[in-house]
Amino acid sequence: MGSRLLLRTGALGYLAVLLLGPVVMIAYRTFEHGVAPVWSALSTPTAEHAIYLSVLVTLISLPLNVVFGLVAGVAIARRRMPAGRSVNLLVNLPFAMSPVVIGLALFTLYGRGGWLGDWLSGHGIQVLFALPSLVLATTFVSLPFVVREVVPVLEEIGTDQEQAAATLGASAWTTFWRITLPALRWALAYGVVLTAARALGEFGAVSIVSGNIVGQTQTLPLLVEERFRNFDAVGAYSAGFALALISMFVVAAMTVLSRRKEH
Amino acid sequence: MAEAATVARRPAAVRLPVARIGSALGPGAALLYLCLIVGLPVAALADRAATSHFWAAVTSPQARSALQLTVEMSLATAAINVAAGVLIAWVLVRDDFPGKALLNGVIDLPFALPTIVAGLVLLSLYGPNSPVGVNVAQSRAAVLLALLFVTLPFVVRSVQPVLLALDAEVEEAGTCLGASGWQNFRMLVWPAIRAATLVGAGLAFARALGEFGSIVLISGNITFHTQVASVLISGQVESGDTSGAAAVSIVLLVLALVVLASLDLAVRRLGRRRG
Amino acid sequence: MSIDVMGVTKRFGEFAALRDVSVSIDRGKLTALLGPSGGGKSTLLRIIAGLETPDSGRVYIDGRDMTEVPARRRGIGFVFQHYAAFPHMTVWENVAFGLRVSRADKPTTKRRVDELLDLVHLAGLSRRYPSELSGGQRQRMALARALAVEPRLLLLDEPFGALDVKVREELRAWLRQLHEQVNATTVFVTHDQEEAMELADQVVLINAGQVEQVGPPEQLYDNPANAFVMSFLGATTRLGDVLVRPHDIEVLADPSAGTHEAMIERVLGLGFHSRIDAVLADGSTVTVQLTRAHAQQLELRVGDIVFLRQMPGTTVTPAPIPASDDQVVGR
Question: Could you say which of C82, C87, C97 has the minimum Cβ distance to residue B274?
């Protein structure tokens, strides 16, 4: 059928220009001059610290959001959390906010003259331009994913199994660990993958709160930007490629997990 | 992934028979966490914006231009995504060709790829050193390009499951009754995917409003021409004008919330009409 | 409109749904495509409709080669097993669809739709949505919708398969009536031989992608072309090397020409008839159906030796060779 081919061409053409071209370019531009420059660009102390920092921040914010996601998810799905509408709003706010706005909000709160800023610095705790702000920003932007994956599954499976466990004498913790959590396996995994990806790739918010201090508060995405601005193309693309590579794994994980969670 | 914004909607469920001592602890802690991580910063932001200079900051020529550009670009993004997203979803669901499964997976890439890398890559392909001779750097086209990239999956992923669930026989019935492919789409398929498309477009719009990382390298940040609101805010923070930045931020935030809320309403009203 | 299918083959991957099928369907008649599930009858119907294209062969409708013509231009009406109702349109809008698509003017559309809704007894429900209707009502709506475009050919794919028994019976009778009224060439697919026998002027029995027999129902019943046709259309039992109807078997006390010796295993009284199971010398079981009176007259008891043979002049077909290897040694 002629129209079928036309539609296919249109869709593929759009995707080629917008998506496939850029994907191919990542690899091409990165390895234009061979593998060695890429490797050395990623082995500089700056780069190594940036990688370390990005991973560290992710590894701190991820469990926080997972625990929150599970606790809040259960509370929301089982109607034990009050004020449904405002909780809804707060949870989805990170999706509606520009990353720079998020960064600014944190800046306002923890900076000089902010509600918590003065008090904390008075006690010798530095938030902005230091690790805590990175964690706060990353946690903010990646907060919703686990909750949003967990709640629909919890609502769908209902409370029957949990009630049965309760009548058999299981404690809340046992019920959660042995009944609820296994049912959430795939949805939780999917949420974790999305959270980690968002955390690793965060740019806008951390660019505001970190001060982008090389070797101290410069995450990998910030490194990409700085190298680009310093005309270090190979350096920028190498760092970018490292992030892109992680994204490809994320996409693969997303594909596999999304099928599993729909069982 | 790109579902409607609400997290919970159904009326009160059955309460568990066993009283749990720690049962208040969980929701309480979660609420505290939420307020601390999200609520408090946003409240602080609103507070910082609520100065006597709010209107001046928001209506300054630079702010007005940036906001107008942002809204225009976001609307264009949403509109193009409706057409492209539905088309792509259609082809992915109804058509078959080698590599389709792989392509389907790649659609999620803009979700997973850090925005700064997206910007870098778009710049390398459509910027000064373009291998295909296309250079849109430092233009509005570049902004649109970046926005289309990062919002690509929203409408596609929103519409795909609905298309998959559609009864193929409904369209066959339409065909037997004399409808052309387009008539089938317009009269039978579109009413079924309308709501999902709207949701996806809304999410794309809200995302586009605040997009930063992919734009910051490619747009050139030319005031009054390619400076979007998020980049303006970033510049204002750098120059120390936090209350000005906060003012523009609040406008942007309110805009996004209003759009998402009205879309939610529209979708609910659409859902009511269906037989 | 008459339909001529010539040498049609259709494959889905490895599976051959139809193999070199040729059949002629008479104009103006109500024809049944009958057969077991997966036999190819729905595929044939859809090829006639133009919803599928054959891998080889031609389809002629009223003498014109329609093989390449798309479904929307064949002038057919199609009714699906699960109604394929347009969920977001009212009953009225559903029925009006075909007319709107062809851009008929409003008065014509209104007149025709109202007419048809009266015909199918759905006039009072025209503002409802399909989800608010029962299965039977939905199917009547689907029929009205198909008829709205005045098709020269009406095709129904297991139209009553999804309905309750009682509704099915009602609609069956009603379809026959409708056919007499509307007089379009009608072809319907069914796996229910009772339905086909009751409704059809002509039956096409399809099995495993091939046509087994074509003809009026009585002909298929009384003169089956082979064992499959015979067993599909009614109960059969095997007596020696032929298949015979259980009620066509004589039970004799003494051996005679052509009788088989058998021992009675079971005697069941089932209302007005009795069923006898008897075992032959080779171990196979024969089922005999007698009227209650006749059974009582013969005073049959379990363990009795009797002699069975087919009644003269009754239908038999050669029995198929059994799949398992249980041939008696020395035969």
Answer: C87
